[in-house]
Each structure stands twice: as C-alpha cells, then as structure tokens.
Amino acid sequence: MKIIRRSIIIYILIISHFCVNAQTKLSEKYNLMPWPEEVVDNDQKFSIDENFTIAVNKDKINDRLFNATTKFLRRLSGRTGVFIDKGFALTANQIKKASLRINYEREGELELHENESYQLTVLSSQIILTAKTDIGILRGLETLLQLSANTKTEYFFHGVTIKDSPRFTWRGLMIDVARHYQPLNVLKRNLDAMAAVKMNVFHWHLCDDQGFRVEVKALPKLHQLGSDGQYYTHNQIKEIVNYASNLGIRVVPEFDVPGHASAILTAYPEIGSKDITYKIERRAGVFDPTLDPTNDKTYQVIDALFSEISQLFPDKYFHIGGDENKGKHWDENIKIQNFKKKKGFKTNHELQTYFNIKIQDILKKNNRTMMGWDEIFQPNLPKDVVIHSWRGNEAMLKSAKLGYKTILSKGYYIDLLESIKTHYSTEPIPNNHDLSEDQVKNILGGEATMWGELVTPVSIDSRIWPRTAAIAERFWSVKSVNNIDNMLKRLESVSFKLEELGITHIRNRDVILRNISNNQDITSLIVLSKICEPLKAYERKKGGTIYKSFSPFTRFINACTPDALDAISFNKKVDSFIVNSNDQSYKDDLVYFFDKWVSNNEAFIKINNNPMLNQLAPLSKNLADLSILLKKGMSQKLNKEEFKIVSKYMNNLNKPFSDTELAIIDGLNKIISTLK
Amino acid sequence: MKIIRRSIIIYILIISHFCVNAQTKLSEKYNLMPWPEEVVDNDQKFSIDENFTIAVNKDKINDRLFNATTKFLRRLSGRTGVFIDKGFALTANQIKKASLRINYEREGELELHENESYQLTVLSSQIILTAKTDIGILRGLETLLQLSANTKTEYFFHGVTIKDSPRFTWRGLMIDVARHYQPLNVLKRNLDAMAAVKMNVFHWHLCDDQGFRVEVKALPKLHQLGSDGQYYTHNQIKEIVNYASNLGIRVVPEFDVPGHASAILTAYPEIGSKDITYKIERRAGVFDPTLDPTNDKTYQVIDALFSEISQLFPDKYFHIGGDENKGKHWDENIKIQNFKKKKGFKTNHELQTYFNIKIQDILKKNNRTMMGWDEIFQPNLPKDVVIHSWRGNEAMLKSAKLGYKTILSKGYYIDLLESIKTHYSTEPIPNNHDLSEDQVKNILGGEATMWGELVTPVSIDSRIWPRTAAIAERFWSVKSVNNIDNMLKRLESVSFKLEELGITHIRNRDVILRNISNNQDITSLIVLSKICEPLKAYERKKGGTIYKSFSPFTRFINACTPDALDAISFNKKVDSFIVNSNDQSYKDDLVYFFDKWVSNNEAFIKINNNPMLNQLAPLSKNLADLSILLKKGMSQKLNKEEFKIVSKYMNNLNKPFSDTELAIIDGLNKIISTLK
Q1: Fewest CB atoms within 10 Å of the CB: A396, A540, A553, B426?
Q2: B519 touches chain A (CB under 8 A)
Q3: Are A402 and A438 in contact (CB under 8 A)?
Q4: Which pLDDT tens digit goes with each residue over A119-170?
Q5: ipTM value for the complex
Q6: Which is catalytic among the residues B37, B114, B308, B324?
Q7: Phi and psi of B531, rounded to 5°?
Q8: What residues in B contact A73, CB-CB < 8 Å?
Q9: Which stretches make up the Glycoside hydrolase family 20 catalytic domain (chains A, B) (predicted)?
C-alpha cells in the first residue's frame, strides 16, 4: 500500500512537473490572460472565414448570450476584416453544423461561488464551448477571442483544449466616481474590459466628501445639492446594473458613512456632528465632516437612503465604507461626548461600532449584507459582515480567523501608480498565515481600487489598464502563475486588444500630447513620455501640485503612465551593459538611446512655444546634454571636470517635471558608476 | 439730394471695401469659425491666469449657463494647464470685478428665429459678453474660446470687438441612428461639437428599414422586434433633449413613413402593403416594404406612435420622412389599386399625399408641425408643412415661392465623402432664383446629413468632422465669407480643437491602423492613409464591397478620410512644378514625396503579415516602383520602355484598394504628361 502510494506521488510529481513545463512553454506561445487552469494544445487550427457561425443549445437565446455572442461576432469581424455572413448566433434548431457550438446547462446567478468554469476545445473542424452556466460561457468566449491569430493569408484560432475555473470568487474593480464623476460610457467600456479579463465585481464608490452621485427620491437634496448636477438617475443605475449583469458582473454600491460626509452634510447639515456650514469638498485628502451617531435623524436619513438604494442594486452586498473617521468633530461635540460616557464607550471606534450595528439593522431589513473597509472590524460585529482589507493583511487574516468573510485591496491600489510588478506579486493569501483550510475559504478574493482624485474620463482608462488585467490574473489563475516577464509579454497583447472595447489608454496619450503642444508635431513628446512616469500618488500630493477636483488633468503627467516603456527597456540594456561592459554591442545599445535623446531635444526645441511645453524644457535639455557626455564616456575616460558636470545634470534631472519623474535615473546612475 | 445720395453710396462702397479687406486680413490672423458678422481687433490682450473669474448678471445662474460656463472653465483650464482657482461662474452679487462679465436679458426659447446674436469685447482689463438671450451667450463663449492663444510664457485672449448673429435660423445636422445604432455618448459629443460651431438643430433619424430605435410603450413590439435590442428608452431620449437644450440646440425627431418601413413591419406586419414575412433589413439600399395607406389600422398605429413620441420631443417640428417610396408593394396590392381608383388617384404620389394629409392631422392634434423630404411636396399640402429638399434645389425654390417654409440638404450629404470644398461652395440660396424678398425668407437654412449605412461609433466622427464645421459656417456667416483656402486654414485649427470635446476623428485613425496591423508599427500605414480617400459613397456601393449592418468597419478605408492631407499637398506641389518645371526646388518638392513612398514600401513590407494588410501590398509596391521611375524622370528623359512601365503602374494604381482610391492620380498624371 505504502509503495503504491509512493509511486502515485512520484507519478503525480512527474506529471505536474511536466505540466508546469508545458504550461510555461505554452504561455510563451499564447497570450492568454488570465492564464487558464489547464491548457493543452494540438497541432490543429480553426480557420475564420465568412461562414463562421455560432449555435447555442437552447430553444431561445437569452439576453446575456445574445449580447455576448453578438459582441463576439462583431469583435471577431472587426479585428480580422472578415465579412461574417451570419451576424447573430443561432439556436441549435436553426443550424445543424455550426463553427462554434455553445452548450450550457442553466442561467448563472450573480452571487458568491457561482460556477464560472468552462471547457473549450478548438479543432480544425469545430469549436466546442461547454459550461455549467451561461456565465461560464462568457468566460470561455473571452478565452477564445484571445486565441485568434493569423498568417499572411488567413485568420484562425489556435487548436487547444482548455479547462478553466477561477481561484477566487470575488474578482473586483472599484471605481470612485465621487472625486470625479464618470459618465455611463466610461463605466460601460470599463465593464467590458473587466469581462474581457474575467473580473466579476464592479464596486461602485458612489459618495464621498467631493460628491454624492445618486438620485435619491426620498431625499432629493442629496443629489440636488451634493453633486454639482453630476449624478446618476435611477434609470441610469439600472442601465449599468443590467449592462454588468449581461457581462456576468455583480455591482456592489458603496455609500461611505459616517466619515467622508461633506457632500451628504451639504444637503442635510442637521445630521452633522458640528454646527458649521458644510460645502462640497474640492480638494483631495481626509476631512472632518462626519455624521452624528447620537442623532436619531441620522438613522432616519440612512434608512430612507439605503432602503431606496437597495431597490436599485439587486446584489446581496452593500458597502458602507466606514474608513478614515478620525472622529475630530465627535471629540469637539459635548453632546456626543456625553453620549459616549453614558454608553460607556471609551473610544470613538466603539462609538462607530455602535453606529455600524444600527446601520447593519437597516441593511438587514432590506435583505442586504453589510461590508465595509477594515476600520469597521471589531470582534463583536455580526458574523455575516464582510471586511474589506485596505491598510494591511492583518485585518484580513484576523477576520478570516474569526469567521468573517473578507476581501483584500491592500496591494491593489492602482491609483498609486506603482509598477504593475508590485500588484502582480501581491498574494491574496499570504504565505505564512496560521489559518485553517476552512478559515482560508473566508478570503473571497480581492479588488483593484481606482480612487478618483486625479482622474477624469480622458485619463482614467490609462490608470486602470492594462495593469488591472494582471491583477485579474492574480485573482483568477492558480498561485503558481507568477512569472513577471511572461506576464509582461502577455499583458502587452492584452493591452492592445483592450482598444477593441473602446478603452482609451493608448489613444488618449496622443490626445493629451496634441493638447499641450497645440497640435504641433508630438514625436519628441512621445519620446519623453516613454521615459517619464507620474509621481507615485502620495509623493504627488506631498511634493507636487495641489489639485482640486476642477484642476486641469490634461498636462504632460496625464499622458505618462507607470512602467514607462522605454525606461524599462533602457534600464534592462544598462543591466546587460554592466555585465558585459567591454562588449561593443552593449555599448551601442546605450548609444542608440543617447543619440535619440540628443536629437529629440532638437525636435523639442522647435515646438517649445508655450508654458506647458516650457515646463519640460529643462528635462529635455539636461537629458540631451548628459547624453552627449555619457556617449563620450562610452568610448573614452571622462575627466574630473566632466564628472562634475555629469553630477550637475543628474541633480537637475532628479526633480519632478510637470509632476512626473524620470524613470531612468537608476539606469543612468549605474552607467555613471561604471564609467568612474 | 442726388449728389448727397451719390456720395453716401461712394462712402458706403469705400467703407465696405475697407471692411472686406480688414476681414480678409483678420481671418488670416484668427481661426474663428463660423466667421462672425463683424470683427474689429485692438492691440490688447487678456491674460489667462489662475485668477480668471466669470460673473453672470442674474441672481441665480440657470442650468444652461451653469453648464456652459462650467464647461468653458474646464476647457480653458484643460488647454492651458492653468489651475483656475474658481471652478464655477459666480453671480454678479458674489463677485465685484470678474474677468469675464456676462450680461443677458432673458432665457432663450428653442424655436425658429430666436435671437442668437451676441457682442464680445476683449480688452486687457476685462472681457464683456452681452446678448439678448442666454443662447446668444453660448454662441459668444464659443467664439471667445476660439480666441485663446499663447506666447512661450503665457496664455491669453486676443483683443477684439465682435458683433455677431446668424444668417439662417435653421443650422442642422442629421444623424441616422437606424442603419447603425449610436450610443448616447456619441450623440452627446457630437452635440457638443455642433454647439462649438454654433449649429442649433439636431435632426434625429430614428427609424428606417434597418432599425426602429425608440421605446414605444403603446406599441412595445416596435422596439422589441425592430431594434435588435438597440433602442433609446424614454428617459434616454429626454436625456438627449435636455443635453441639447443646455447647448441651445433643438431636437427634431424623424420617423420615416410610409416607405423605409421594414423594421416597423417586422413588428406590425398587419399594416404592411404586402402579405409577406418582414424582417429587419441588414443591407443598405432602397427597399419595398411600405405601410398600407388604405388600412385604418395604419393610422391607429401612427396615431399611437406619434402621440407618444410628441410627448418626448418638445420641438414644434416633427419629420415624417416620406422619401423614396417607389410604391412597388402598392402596385402589387389589388385592394390598394381599387382604393386608388375609387378615390380617383392617378399616381402613387397622389395616394401618398392622401396619406400625408391624414398624418398631418395626427400631428396637428399633437400640436406639431409636419416636415418631410421633398417627395412629400404637392401644391395642395397645408401651408405650414416644411419641405426638406434633398434631391435638388427645385423643390426648395418652388415650395418657397408657394409660401412653404423649406430647408436644404442637397449639397450637404456628408456621407458621400466628397471634398469639403463641394459642400462649402453650396449656397443655400442659389444665385439665379426668382423669389421675392419675402419668399426668400421661407428658406430657413439647411442641414448636413450623416446617413449611417457605413459608420459605427468608431468611425462616425471622422465622417462628420471637421467637415461639418465648414457647412456650419455656410449656414451662419454671411454669403461673402467663401474663400476656400482661408476656410481650410481655419478648419485645421477647429478640427484639432474638436478633440477637446471628445470628438474622435483624429485619435481613431490610429486605433483602426493598429487594429489592421495587429499593433505593429503603423508609420507606413499612416503615410498611405494620407494619400488614400474612401471611394465616394455611391461608387463604393456600386463597384466595391457589399456591406451589411454587421460588416466590419475597422478596415483601412475607415482610417481614411476625404481631403486626404498629403494628397492635397502633393497635388498642389505638382501644380507649382508644372508652372516652374525647370526650377530645381519644385522638382525637389516632388522628389521628397517619391523618396518617402519608396522607403515607405520597405517599412510596409516589414509589417505585411496578415490579409488586411496584404490587400494594400499592390498599392504600396506599385506606388514605390512608380516613384523610382518618376524620380529618375525628374533628372533625365525616360525612354519608351520606361513610359510603358509607368503606364502599367498607373493602371495598377487606378483601382480601389480595400475600398479606397489613391487621391494623387491626377497629380501623377500631370507629372507624367510633363515628362513626355
């Protein structure tokens, strides 16, 4: 028995080793993201021509699949130029032999742990996509679209057999529409993009100090006074919820209480903790306006609000925020202080828990489950509350241990504009935890968070995408899919394909550069934008410009992104050069960049005729001048005087330019050390 | 008395001559479009900095001006990068000395002949904008935005005094959303662009053979069966009407009857003229399905439909189409033939007039004025019907003579993709008419028409803009503003500024080229796209591909536009060369292009790895090979054999490539003649 067991183990080890290797090889070949659970390829391919048809194994094609198959056909036709003759999917009755046969059992429900698995087989004769639910079919259709390829004479799908299902059931993206309102079309295209990488929760941050964004019929002052006219009507919310549902995406609303309350209190100051005139906040930051937890009217307002909102969002979960309440206005209010004493609360946290429990009653009445940021966590909270971890892992691990469901956003704050490597390497389940197998199951997944202080409809896509695709892979794929270089390769392909869905992250870079150059030749600006990155968010707030919600977000920084393409490439070349510093070809690689930056400055000078461009002049000039010296350094020793000048240039370059930083400083420093 | 009169006339002539000259000079300096009635400049300028403020002379800022001033501030801040401190306009009470003072008398009404005039004075100390109505203020704000400029160190407004008012009261753009559905955001950005060039009527073509695009509660089968799920809800229509109203734009709905009825009859076949199974039409063209004018139920349906629709559109005018009914199904229906005999109608036109008069009763009941395409014109029509001329000027002139109000679209069919010169040169009031002064007043203006067979949300903007800005000038400015070169210069500036409003005509060219190249380097494709133009629409239908509504519109042709930029430039250089064929510098200009096309082919070959690109290979190669020979011809005589080869290349190039045509054929032919 023991021997048999051992050989089984050895067999499994061999197989799994073989699989990992095969997987690695395949992930070099196919640009699938998130990477599926199991991929096996065959040497076949399915040709895409005008006869392409889809059959669904039902008498009637439901809304979700009508939508999904129609979009599938349009995207396929759009990217291949093939004039597909049948513009819509058919039922199995209507067509005997279809190119793509879709088989599923039942309509999926938008709830936790719904079955999203699918199996996909592409042969030269036929494609078969099978799933338990129509939501699984949607996930499989996205995989199939990622398998399209071409030769010079035809388009085709790669021949494969794929079995796939998600690691986590909660794979979310939060979009904050309070700091900057985002119109429906921005949300819709981002929902499409989410579905393309198999995300399934849209967390909609709908109110904050800077705006209250929902029509509330019972409390009309909320949207009338709290939104500058930029809010979603009931019908628009239903439109988004329905749009998401067709994509197999749940929508979780967030109304942040009791802090972050400037907009609410602009409408209903009588439930505030301080007797002041409240105004919609225009700055970014953490502010003091807070609801009064000792006032009955506060609960009446929240009751009316949450009851009305619950009608609009069918999802079981309701996010109440609950974060960043420093309690300053509570401390300054004698009535509230007396209340605390009377109740025996020692801390504001206890008072907030009192508030939370009352809020939870209201939500329960509306058949909703409360969730909130990790500040709401307190061991005496009802057990069905979901804890949303953002400050660290501890709250998540502690609450999972105590039996609370929990999701993670710490590590997925995409608004910080850090390298995608950081986010991709963040494991939702940390390695050294002491949770039992059952307790681990309390970790439902995670969410990328797009806080909105610094984004408008023009720039928001470039802050979310393509980065969020890699985070989506972290939530969907098994833990062992974690090779960064391979991820970056696949991400590049996914990034381009997102254009098909209307995501503007690529196209709007040039729109912004044309804007700042007043429609001159932007070639030199593109070069600069590829080596500059936005200051990481908190630096930007500290060192840089102070932004208001109506500040311009159409400047050079808004055309730049994290992981600047040429910077990555240059820094890599520098590393190769360091190891092979006597090899001429590695020197040539660097000289290529130096020459480019020198001639780029000449092009830049030609267009530099306005204040926005002029802010970049020191960047362009110092980089060009430095490049001349470093190029010289590649072929001869620099003297002391020259090294001094190099230092001066480096000092000049080591500053923010129009709120960006030069992302090649490290590489340049490495070169300089080598030359010494 | 006579002498005095004569000197007054001479004086007027001198003054007006002087004005015209000054105007011409100023229109070289300022990129205003439409060109205002009167512009006088001073040597002042108003500096734009963070202290910029707006004051409105009312106690409360109404919705329209809140919207207009807020957008004004965002656009100004966005294009200058200036962090304007006050993000919203203030009332005169709230601020004593504002940068921009807005004074108006009353809210404008969205109706014919409403006052849209304004006066704008920009001095170094202040800007004053005055108008009778808030709509006039909107028009003035757009002019002011067109006056922004900069030096290297600051942004400013040019110092001017402008008096302005429109020539015509009806300055429209029709968008057909039946052939291809256009989402709300596409319509909104186009409304913004219309307002930017002072257009004031959005004519919304809402149903046709290919789709019925409005929710109808009384007749739900219309949108359920006639739209593939792509229709506007009541709330969405109200949203667009309100959006337009805030821009001072009227919205006129069109429901095309009795022809173009496939979608309506798919829902209600019982009111069709033939007993067949109707289906939503997928092709482009003119089709036979027609409502039965002898069936009472037809009028019941239209009554229910038009009564419900009238509630959604406050505008007085209601367009019933009425075009292109060939009456084939009427001729094939014995009941209808008998009805004609009984009524004594000799032609189908008489039968259609019978139908129109019944429709007009329905509209009258709903307090709406009927308008229709010129086919509805018949001298016994009620006098308040508006005739929309599209087949020629005759109907327009005839109906104006008979006292009907009329507008012109013949000459403004932008879907034909002709050069903007053609449209710009089309005068709404032809020179040799025999109308009295009062009769001329019946010509209310015109409309550009964007028929939707060949456009999707990705490409529609590039078919409408920037061209429609020149048509807008034709409708707004005085007749004498008609210099084409000057218009083209100003149009280029307007075109770029439209990006600010989200118009995608520039950015989406590259999106499409990335698509067809699968995200390779698109430089060589950009070069080709700048010398190729889409086949003019009717050729495209005749010679080229047959499109269905779900065909791909993401191919090379969709990245090309009329008035291809390099083609215009090349053809001009050729003309200069012809006149100065011995001057080396003119030869050099041409050689520059030849060299470019030779090296471009090398770049193209590198990326040519898929079927969509491969369609362009003969174009790129023949042009490169021809260029080599023509370059040789610039310095030495070509021999007979070489001329033969030149002819072969020209033959090869004189064909459509991926539904485009090479727009430099004329120029090339001219060069070849010279070389002979």
Answers
A1: B426
A2: yes
A3: no
A4: 999 999 999 999 999 999 999 999 999 999 999 999 999 999 999 999 999 9
A5: 0.95
A6: B324
A7: -120, 0
A8: 550
A9: 168-477
